[in-house]
Design brief:
The chain is α/β, with parallel strands linked by helices. The chain has eleven helices and twelve strands. The radius of gyration is 19 Å and the shape is globular.
């Protein structure tokens, strides 16, 4: 049995009760934290809180060499854990398909996602979000400025009146030649960095919403023009940026009251 468990958004307590029980009953527990991470805890704290040992796999250990995970699941009860919801990344879907091809039974225990949290915290209606995009660090995509695919994705959503969730790049030390080397600090793109890139390469006056530390006791939501957001600091990771499309009057009220958006930046009604 291979059980995929989403750990939620913040710390060792963010997992659901069902996920907690599955973690504690597994024969072996694997995890990856290169697609996202729990910013409010450490692997050691996770292990201590749940009374388990966690075998952390890097990107190669999940995508190119998943056999140790699959072999263990063929012979016993294995948990595979990620931050957020465990099936958001195609990496994890691929691992589940590989298990199915080997006749290994799988199940999924969901966790809270960054996308649902962003909608909840900002007041932007979840059914009005379009396709999400990921903004990479400039050095990681081999070109100057913001990738055109990111701008095209935002504009395509806005043409349909839809909001865009912009995932911000994470570089875990040692996980990529383009990122920090093993032993160096992990690197997390901040919302002000992302706002600056989009203000420079796309639209300085467009409204953006920065979301920091979703799922924590002290999340931050700040709405303003991209140009204004680019001059602010939002504290510790993880950060997201949302680019609203057509803004419903209730969403406008939420951005003003919950995100501190200046009324002058919001569309007139």
């Amino acid at each position: 049995m291979l059980t995929f468990i989403g750990l939620g958004l913040w710390d060792e307590r963010s997992v659901t009760v069902e996920g907690r029980d599955a973690l504690r009953s597994a024969d072996r527990v694997f995890a990856e934290f290169y697609t996202s991470r729990l910013a409010g805890t450490t692997v050691a704290d996770l292990e201590r809180h749940h009374g388990i040992d966690i075998e952390v796999r890097d990107r190669d250990g999940v995508e190119r060499d998943p056999e140790p995970i699959l072999d263990a699941a063929a012979d016993g009860d294995v948990a595979f854990c990620t931050a957020g919801d465990t099936m958001i990344s195609t990496t994890h879907v691929d691992l589940r398909v590989r298990a199915a091809e080997r006749g290994i039974e799988t199940r999924v225990i969901h966790g809270v996602t960054a996308q649902s949290a962003a909608s909840s915290l900002t007041g932007l209606q979840n059914y009005r979000f379009g396709k999400a995009v990921t903004l990479p660090f400039e050095y990681a995509h081999g070109a100057d400025g913001t990738p055109q695919s990111v701008i095209d994705g935002i504009e395509a959503n806005r043409e349909r009146g839809l909001h865009t969730l912009v995932y911000l790049d994470i570089k875990v030390a040692g996980s990529s030649p383009a990122g920090p080397a093993e032993g160096e600090p992990d690197e997390y793109m901040t919302a002000d960095h992302a706002a600056n890139a989009l203000a420079r390469d796309w639209d300085d006056d467009a409204v953006g919403v920065a979301v920091a530390r979703a799922g924590s006791p002290d999340p931050v939501v700040a709405a303003d023009t991209l140009g204004a957001l680019s001059t602010r600091e939002f504290g510790d990771p993880l950060h997201l940026l949302v680019i609203p499309g057509e803004i419903h009057h209730l969403e406008a009220e939420a951005l003003a009251e919950l995100g501190g958006c200046p009324r002058s930046a919001l569309p007139e009604r």
